[in-house]
Design brief:
Layout lengths: L3 H9 L7 H6 L9 H17 L5 E4 L3 H7 L7 E5 L2 H7 L5 E5 L3 E3 L4 E3 L1 H8 L3 E7 L2 E3 L2 E4 L2 H13 E7 L11 E4 L6 E4 L14 E3 L6
């Protein structure tokens, strides 16, 4: 990894928009390396990748979790549709990936597209999988803080045949402003822990990935 792949994103981007080197560095402090959180992100991403069949069409959200999920897809053969510039940057050199972007209104700080043009573009396509990242997850369903992201996520839900929610266990304690969908709308949940999970039997299928180092 070149030094400028870390330094420039670290200086120019806010905490909601991170490249993978900056994202991973957030687990390292002067006192401790958060191996558990780092392992959770990698394990969730790997499990999500294993659920997606070859030659599928998949929608990936922008953001750090979407970026982490994009990494194990680089050797796969599939079509990836995304509003996120950092997700597209991770996949642009992958020879077996057919990469599409939503276009729309650019949110510069988050490096992603939103707005009516993005929503209309999503609505003109049909997808096999939607891999959704969320701000919060509880018995009422999946929630999101940003209303622009909420609209993009609802459009992707309508266009996809199956939905995976990828959320680490910290999201179980969050209840964000707007509800994206009820928990029954999710086909598979991928997380790193079942401790105190708030969705009871509402989720059809839950994949709990191991984050313990061997």
């Amino acid at each position: 990894m070149a030094w400028n792949e870390f330094l420039m994103p670290l200086v120019l981007l806010d905490r909601q928009a991170k490249t993978l080197p900056v994202y991973v560095s957030g687990f390292v402090t002067s006192r401790v390396i958060d191996w558990e959180a780092m392992a959770a992100a990698a394990s969730i991403a790997g499990e999500v990748s294993s659920l997606i069949e070859a030659n599928s069409t998949v929608f990936l959200n922008a953001g750090s979790t979407g970026l982490a999920i994009a990494q194990p897809l680089v050797t796969r053969s599939m079509t990836v549709f995304t509003p996120g510039l950092w997700v597209s940057d991770a996949l642009k050199a992958a020879s077996e990936i057919r990469l599409m972007m939503t276009g729309g209104l650019m949110r510069a700080r988050e490096q992603c597209f939103t707005g009516s043009s993005a929503i209309e573009m999503i609505g003109t396509h049909r997808l096999v999988w939607y891999v959704m990242t969320v701000s919060g997850l509880d018995l009422a369903g999946c929630t999101e803080w940003n209303l622009d992201d909420h609209a993009v996520k609802q459009s992707a839900l309508s266009s996809a045949r199956k939905t995976i929610v990828a959320a680490d266990s910290s999201k179980f304690t969050e209840i964000a402003f707007s509800r994206v969908c009820p928990i029954e709308r999710v086909d598979v949940g991928v997380t790193n822990s079942d401790a105190d999970r708030p969705f009871g039997d509402g989720l059809r299928r839950l994949k709990i990935v191991s984050t313990h180092r061997k």
